[in-house]
Each structure stands twice: as C-alpha cells, then as structure tokens.
Design brief:
9 strands; five-stranded mixed beta sheet; globular; two-stranded antiparallel sheet; 6 helices; about 200 residues; alpha+beta
Length: about 200
C-alpha cells in the first residue's frame, strides 16, 4: 500500500514525491513524509512491520514510541542518500523525472531507526549512526544494523514504486541502486559491499 500511496501522492502533486521532513526540524510539530502519505493509507497498520521488534520502541534519545515524531511506527524510511534533509527541511520534495532509472533506484527501505530516512551505510559495522546514537535501538545484537531483514532479505520500494526483496549487498555492487544515477560514486559503494564492512545479517 505504501507504493500505491506514493504513486497517488505523486500524481496529485505534479509527479513529485513528498519531502523527507517539513517545517521546523527541531519542533514538536515536525512533519515527515509519512504525514504526507497518511491520507492515502487505508489502515495505520500499514506503517508497522509485524516482525520489527523496534517498531514501537521507546528509547532515551526519543522517549515517544515509534519514530522521531511519536506518531508512526519505525518500520520504513526514505533512501537517505537522496532524501536526507540535514538541519533544514526540504519542502520541495523530489520530482520523479530526476531519477535517471526509476526502476533501478531505491526510494524506500525497511528500517529499525526512528529517523525518516536511512542511507546505505546504515548497514555497516561499525556503523557511524550506531556509534553516535547507541540508544536508538531498544535492543540491538552486535551483528545487526539499521535495516530490518527477513531471513537476510530487505524489502525495497524503487522509484517506479515496484517492490523487491534483496540482500543489501546486492544493492551496493556491481552497480549501486542508491543514487539518482545508478552506479554514481561506485567506488565508495563497492568498498561498502565487502563482507568485512557489512553487518553479518547483510552479507
């Protein structure tokens, strides 16, 4: 249903996907892409992956349950390589025409983090986000990363809104699927794809 909601939103807003974050980045009224898509979703249960133990967790960094807003579960995230908003909100969203290969570019991932976006390096160990923010998990085995898996597979939504289950490693090399232009900055992603750089569950 999330893929259908993305398509419906894009059709209503001039072929543009919703921004990662809207409004005041530090305020309690902070809105994210889930707020934009929620009117297109038939059930709140869509936002929760039943097998994600962290979906509605409360941790010290974010005392509200679920994601950073406290309004949604932490089960899905935008591709942070493309949609990361930094310290200011990108209110414009991203036009679908900017993707060089919509069928080959990741739009959304399964996530254990409260952030609305998660980049490829969320799957690496030691992972910089885990080092800086060790309390983002309610509990985290040392061989797990930010992406939720199902027998080692992650469900990815691509920019044409099709869904495919893949190993994280397969999205990194031989041609990465994380950039607007597939294969861009490939040397970095090829280095990410080495077993020594990946959390055990992603190899």
């Amino acid at each position: 249903q999330i893929g259908i909601a993305l398509t419906s939103y894009s059709n209503d807003y001039d072929e543009t996907f919703p921004a990662n974050r809207f409004g005041d980045m530090g305020g309690v009224t902070n809105r994210i892409w889930k707020d934009a898509l929620d009117p297109y979703i038939k059930s709140k249960d869509v936002w929760i992956c039943p097998s994600n133990d962290h979906a509605m967790a409360k941790v010290s960094a974010y005392p509200k349950p679920g994601d950073e807003t406290g309004r949604f579960a932490r089960s899905y995230a935008y591709n942070g390589t493309i949609f990361y908003a930094g310290g200011t909100a990108d209110k414009q969203g991203v036009k679908s025409s900017k993707f060089k290969s919509a069928a080959g570019t990741i739009l959304m991932v399964e996530s254990r983090y409260p952030f609305p976006d998660l980049p490829a390096y969320g799957g690496h160990y030691p992972d910089w986000q885990i080092i800086l923010y060790p309390n983002l998990f309610s509990r985290r085995p040392p061989d797990q990363g930010g992406f939720q898996t199902h027998s080692g597979m992650i469900n990815f939504i691509f920019a044409d809104t099709h869904v495919k289950a893949m190993k994280l490693k397969a999205t990194l090399a031989p041609e990465n699927m994380w950039e607007m232009t597939p294969g861009a900055n490939q040397a970095t992603y090829t280095a990410f794809a080495q077993d020594a750089q990946l959390c055990k569950e992603y190899r």
